[in-house]
From TrEMBL:
Listed GO biological process terms: methylation
Pfam family, one: Methyltransf_7
Keywords: Magnesium, Metal-binding
InterPro entries per the UniProt record, alphabetical: MeTrfase_7, MeTrfase_capping, SAM-dependent_MTases_sf
Source superkingdom: Eukaryota
Protein name: Uncharacterized protein
Length: 416
């Protein structure tokens, strides 16, 4: 799913100093700050359907949802069916642009229609709203919707539409819909993205200034605390908005990356290895004066995997508005399992490059928005070189062959 992401300091290329790299010859670059650090920008995932696109590199996310179909259907079964003559309203928050969102919506819509059939009630129309940031590839998404022949009314048939689709651009950390408008909210693998990088992490005068890492791996306690505070605020804002937009009896179904304990920071995981690779890439570019230390320390990734304790604390604040039907931490092997099945006979270096491609799908827009297109190209070429020349290839291969679980939290809330 697409990210609720930020710009950091937007960097523009202008002539200044020279750095050299074997793959690029001489590079002449200057980064000039032109945006307020940490502010939200319309940055999401890689668009289109090319080799780098999210649409072509999100199959593992699809596996995660397919394994939880029964959970989704059980949650839909407790949703109060509306008695009014209007449509049933379903919304996917952080839909991105691939086919995953259509598969997720099909699960929900088909279950709703089955309930109406079983109750012998008239089946109402279903309106489906696809939400993501304004920069999301809505054109690509709605081309997929149009190819679904069961969506919308056909000119040569009287068959009812499966659903009526619409797009809603905007951050899901703010209000998106009128009050008491939506019957079912769904969001998959999005809420680990924060609305912005914490202000303290970008402040050189703050003890939480994060100068040595692009994320929180191996970071100080102050950096981790700043991310946690931002995460707490964002989840609070998210639930407040959905409480206002959901009808009484409506469902809020959430699935996102989490961690088992408050002390676990994903350092010893497949993704932790790749976070370090991003740091090594930035350090390499600084050492060759392609980037300055200031430019390097201005880049931080706005993601945070909450613990069950942190999630529960926020949900508790909304106990007068929601009934908790499900709150469960689930181990997930699907990323490693997916690559293990798909690349069973691949050489270790080929396998590592494919995992990097999946990481790049969501991180490249951040790099390009922050450093500009020219540096973005250099960054990923250097990142690939460092990957293939390091012991990380062996680590990735071993983790895929004998995967350790990541964790995701599944939340089903019903509006009182």
């Amino acid at each position: 799913m697409a990210a609720q992401t930020y710009s950091g300091d937007m960097l523009q290329q202008q002539p200044e100093h020279r750095g050299h790299h074997a793959s690029h010859g001489t590079v002449s670059l200057k980064a000039s700050i032109s945006a307020k650090p940490g502010t939200i920008r319309n940055v999401g995932v890689v668009k289109g359907d090319g080799e780098l696109s999210y649409a072509k590199n999100s199959s593992s996310q699809a596996v995660a949802v397919q394994e939880l179909i029964s959970y989704i259907e059980d949650a839909v079964d407790i949703t109060r069916l509306p008695n009014s003559a209007g449509p049933v309203v379903v919304a996917d928050l952080g839909c991105a642009s691939g086919s995953n969102t259509l598969k997720n919506i099909d699960i929900i819509v088909n279950r709703l229609k089955k309930r109406y059939l079983q109750s012998s009630c008239r089946q109402p129309d279903v309106s489906v709203y696809f939400n993501d940031l304004p920069s999301n590839d809505f054109n690509g998404l709605f081309q997929l919707v149009a190819e679904d022949t069961l969506t919308g009314y056909s000119s040569n048939t009287d068959a009812p539409a499966k659903y009526f689709p619409a797009g809603v651009p905007g951050s899901f950390y703010s209000r998106l819909f009128p009050e008491s408008f939506v019957h079912v909210f769904f969001s998959s693998h999005c809420l680990h993205w924060l609305s912005k990088v914490p202000d303290a992490v970008m402040d050189r005068n703050s003890p939480a200034f994060n100068s040595n890492s692009c994320w929180i791996q191996d970071a100080s306690e102050e950096v981790i605390a700043a991310y946690k505070d931002q995460s707490d605020k964002d989840l609070t804002d998210f639930l407040r908005c959905r409480a206002e937009e959901l009808q009484s009896g409506g469902l809020l179904f959430l699935l996102f990356f989490a961690r088992q304990t408050s002390h676990e920071i994903l350092n010893n995981s497949l993704f932790g290895d790749f976070w370090r690779l991003l740091d090594l890439t930035l350090e390499s570019l600084v050492s060759e004066r392609i980037l300055t230390e200031e430019q390097r320390s201005s880049f931080n990734i706005p993601t945070f995997a909450r613990s069950m304790e942190e999630i529960s604390e926020v949900i508790e604040r909304f106990k007068s508005q929601f009934v908790v039907q499900k709150l469960e931490m689930l181990p997930i092997y699907h990323f490693a399992d997916y690559f293990g099945r798909r690349c069973n006979n691949e050489e270790p270096k080929i396998l590592a490059k494919k995992v990097l491609l999946m990481i790049r799908t969501t991180k490249e827009p951040l790099i390009e928005a922050h450093f500009g297109p020219a540096l973005n190209k250099i960054f990923w070429e250097r990142c690939t070189e460092l990957l293939l020349s390091s012991d990380l290839v062996g680590k990735v291969y071993a983790r895929v062959r004998k995967p350790e679980p990541l964790h995701q939290v599944l939340i089903a809330l019903v509006r009182k």
